[in-house]
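Dear Dr. K.,

Following up on our conversation at the group meeting, I've run the structure prediction for Solute carrier organic anion transporter family member from Macaca mulatta. I'm pasting the input sequence below exactly as I used it, so you can double-check it against your construct before we proceed with anything downstream. Let me know if the numbering doesn't match what you have in your notebook.
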Amino acid sequence: EGPRQLWPAGEGPQVPDKETKATMGTENTPGGKASPDPQDVRPSVFHNIKLFVLCHSLLQLAQLMISGYLKSSISTVEKRFGLSSQTSGLLVSFNEVGNTALIVFVSYFGSRVHRPRMIGYGAILVALAGLLMTLPHFISEPYRYDNTSPEDMPQDFKASLCLPTTSAPARTHSNGNCSSYTETRHLSVVGIMFVAQTLLGVGGVPIQPFGISYIDDFAHNSNSPLYLGILFAVTMMGPGLAFGLGSLMLRLYVDINQMPEGGISLTIKDPRWVGAWWLGFLIAAGSVALAAIPYFFFPKEMPKEKHELQFRRKVLAVTDSPARKDKDSPSKQSPGESTKKQDGLVQIAPNLTVIQFIKVFPRVLLQTLRHPIFLLVVLSQVCLSSMAAGMATFLPKFLERQFSITASYANLLIGCLSFPSVIMGIVVGGVLVKRLHLGPVGCGALCLLGMLLCLFFSLPLFFIGCPSHQIAGITHQTSAQPRPELFPSCMEVCSCPSDGFNPVCDPSTRVEYITPCHAGCSSQVVQDALDKSQVFYTNCSCVAEGNPVMAGSCDSTCSHLVVPFLLLVSLGSALACLTHTPSFMLILRGVKKEDKTLAVGIQFMFLRILAWMPSPVIHGSAIDTTCVHWALSCGRRAVCRYYNNDLLRNRFIGLQFFFKTGSVICFALVLAILRQQDKEARTKESRSSPAVAQQLLVSGPGKKPEDSRV
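The predicted structure tokens came back this morning:
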């Protein structure tokens, strides 16, 4: 109500700033031509809520792109800086730390600040955090994919050959890098990324809440849900674009800005390949900075939109005539709810100081948590969000390792299949609630059905995958046939570097060796083909019959299974997302009207603290437990080189299955409670209706004044 009253009575002291005066002048004249002065024309462009919706859609799209981009390049960042999955999961979680620390105060300060300007400042901070994320690339030495310096390219292959004369210097070279300076630099690089992720979260705090409340305040009441729907639809494309951007960037070599003279001998399929992860952050940060500019020109207040959109009126005339009769439809109440929600903020927040706000918060929190429906629905959403956070963070890495595909291809598949299915699931859920006019029991039933189907379609995922590679000296097969790893004496003379990694494959037995040295190979041959050159290593004492071995990991025999696997994952995601709208409706129905604003705030707080923050760390830790060979950096565990594929699949999919089961149990309890409440309400009605009818007949006319007064 606040902004609506300001404008008609805003001639005098309530219009202090230049921008507002200019609009008042143009508003009362037809066509807004009060004055030819260009200063008066400029603000009028930004006194348009449609332009704000467009700008906010683009900003939220760019913001989600930058916050989702790290997830698309997580395995690359791990490889580049020697991080475990647990550390990289913690890095992703730090985005939520900054966000959660400040989000409580948004409702308090919401009505007191210049909202568009605050959104602009937040967006600038997000862009600076994105630039800070790229800093580790520029302060680190060029990436070395072997134990030699990149300037001395002929040493590339010789370092890992079985040559007793050169192997000792190579080993001392790699160990010689372990100085206190190296360790300090590593810690500072990781520290910078943690700070950048925290700032990314802090910058995102004002963007969504202030944007939604601003649209809700100044849009026509009938148009507000449509604008928020457009905003949500455009925003949801952000993560998909982030994975698409990741797919493009990871095809480029990491040091594209400082390539060695002789070029590099790696291909994108080489397990040592590291893509240009930092370039995506630069592009995303630039797009956020551009999207932030208009916010410094929008006014603090603008005239409320006077007209309902013609497009919306026509659509409603065709589709909604029967729906208007149903006043209890959840979707019919949503516009009113959203305005009431904002009014609640406007009325409550200005009357409290910060100290009072902090004192009142725990009491209202406990009061809200007493509602069993609210608590159970939030717990089920916590389970779903934990599943989503783990999947979004580590699914690209899982596909890479499980199906031996490149990071670029994994991101492309996820961007094209998974995210569109998520959007489709949310939209279909909303349409079902609207079209079927679902009440609370119907919403509960839809949530339970969606999750049961999701659980059913995730069962086959346990069985779709590839077996682990046979790696000499690491994976021991119990078999009567003698294996190369049973004869370590063949490479004793080589004194191979312990931290070397330059995998080679014996095509006849499909056994992989960590380096040519571990295969006992003493020479190297390059065969030039039309499009690329293939490297072979010969004179290999550890390989059966001394066959030559190929450079690179052994190809997987079942990489083609990645598409059916991801289709099942996408189908499960779509079914899980059916619950998005009905579960939100259950939360709004499960609490008192005056508590709705805070209930939604508490819901998001719980999701952040219990799901988005811990889930990536839990999934990362689970992935780390399946590692069979760690790379060592200065004596500490760095990145994992090889995983046990069966364990990796069972633990990653098992963790997802655990969260889905938790969600099913919560929704089943919600449905049981709702049915019980529904039954009790009906019995009360049936008992009280005859008595009420009789009472009305006896004292009908006398009650009317009292009723109208109430």
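Two things stood out to me. Residues 236 and 660 are 22 Å apart (CA to CA). Residues 504-552 form one domain.

Best regards,
J.T.
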